[in-house]
Design goal:
With about 350 residues, the protein is α+β, with helices and mostly antiparallel strands. The chain is built from eight helices and 13 strands. It has two domains: about 15-75, no CATH class; about 105-295 and about 310-350, 3-Layer(aba) Sandwich (Rossmann fold), CATH 3.40.50.10480.
Length: about 350
């Protein structure tokens, strides 16, 4: 008997996968796949890095081969057949469907027309009081100064030694509609409490109250090439709020702003929800004609007598501030951590079991 041949894995070699994927897999028929196994299991760091470089080259070659095969198939089917653009899988487009997702529900629209925030969306102007934690740092005042440029009718009162309950009573008696309390840690803002103080229909219960974790705060002076905001009332863009909870949080944030925007100011405030993080931005926009494309327009007027519109470019200039919010809890009524009833509270171990489940 001859000497038994040693297995390839014992010599440090990786067996190659030479299987052929069918057309149903989306790579085209006849594409030979030659990709080694991911070398993450190799203990030796030098060997692992060497093999990983080859592994990436093989993946790039396979991707190119697959693309060329799809182009050949499209040419064979004819010019009128358009290639299907493959959409990459992301956490956003593979999210788990939330049972409370709102999709043009007339019942939800009717409820929102009669909720506690409806007057602000139909013309009533809010009046907002903002304060801080006791003994705030100087950096927190720079953030408040930017918020006063962001939110119209925002009035600052020093916290001193008053409790949040006492401040709610004080603000409600002076016809303030909202209260914002900022907290901080290590001289950086890390929390924002927003409480609605106006009674529902004059007889109902005030509230709700929401607490957001604040992160990535960048004041206006630290934003490169930032502009100076004006006193015009900005436009409001609430984007990405899809569930019932998301609609409620979005309407709470929207009720802080007046809804009679002064368009001559060309300012817009954006609350963009992505994966339950609310990105807050403040921009000024400008429309400018594209000079290069305008030169290419035909000089002769069309037969119908209409004149072609010149191409227009849209440009944005960030005004600041820039920060991110993350909802932690939503409570009925005004601020009351001892006896208040919670509409929703974020429980990490129970709710964050999968990365593809979002609540807003």
């Amino acid at each position: 008997m001859g000497k038994k041949k040693a297995d390839a894995s014992l010599k440090g070699k990786k067996p190659e996968n030479t299987a052929k994927r069918g057309a149903g897999a989306g790579t085209g028929a006849g594409v030979t796949v030659k990709v080694q196994r991911n070398p993450g299991h190799i203990a030796n760091k030098l060997k692992r890095s060497e093999v990983y470089g080859k592994y990436l080259e093989q993946k790039r070659a396979l991707k190119k081969e697959t693309r060329l095969q799809r182009e050949k198939e499209a040419e064979a089917l004819g010019e009128q057949t358009q290639m299907k653009k493959q959409t990459p899988k992301t956490i956003d487009n593979t999210r788990e469907l939330e049972p409370t997702m709102v999709l043009d529900d007339p019942e939800v629209a009717a409820d929102e027309d009669e909720d506690e925030f409806a007057p602000y969306f139909f013309g009533e102007k809010p009046k907002v009081l903002i304060t801080t934690r006791p003994r705030p740092s100087q950096s927190l005042f720079h953030f408040i100064a930017d918020l006063q440029k962001l939110i119209p009718a925002l009035h600052f009162y020093p916290r001193k030694s008053y409790s949040v309950k006492e401040i709610c009573t004080f603000a409600a008696n002076r016809e303030f509609t909202h209260l914002i309390v900022l907290s901080e840690k290590s001289k950086a803002c890390n929390g924002m409490t927003i409480s609605h103080l106006r009674l529902h229909d004059g007889v109902g219960k005030a509230g709700p109250t929401a607490f957001f974790k604040v992160s990535n705060v960048i004041t206006s002076k630290n934003i490169p090439n930032h502009g100076a905001s004006t006193s015009h009332i900005p436009e409001l863009n609430l984007h990405g709020f899809g569930t019932r909870l998301g609609h409620r949080v979005g309407r709470l944030l929207g009720s802080i702003f007046p809804h009679d925007a002064q368009f001559q100011g060309r300012q817009v405030v954006t609350f963009h929800n992505q994966r339950d993080y609310l990105f807050v931005r403040h921009h000024r926009y400008i429309f400018k004609e594209d000079a290069e494309k305008t030169k290419k327009l035909p000089t002769e007027a069309p037969a119908d007598g209409s004149s072609p519109l010149p191409p227009v470019k849209t440009r944005l200039q960030e005004l600041g501030p820039r920060f991110t919010l993350k909802l932690r809890w939503l409570q009925e009524g005004t601020f009351d951590t001892q006896h208040g009833e919670y509409e929703w509270i974020h429980k990490r171990k129970e709710m964050d079991s999968t990365r593809r489940k979002f609540h807003l």
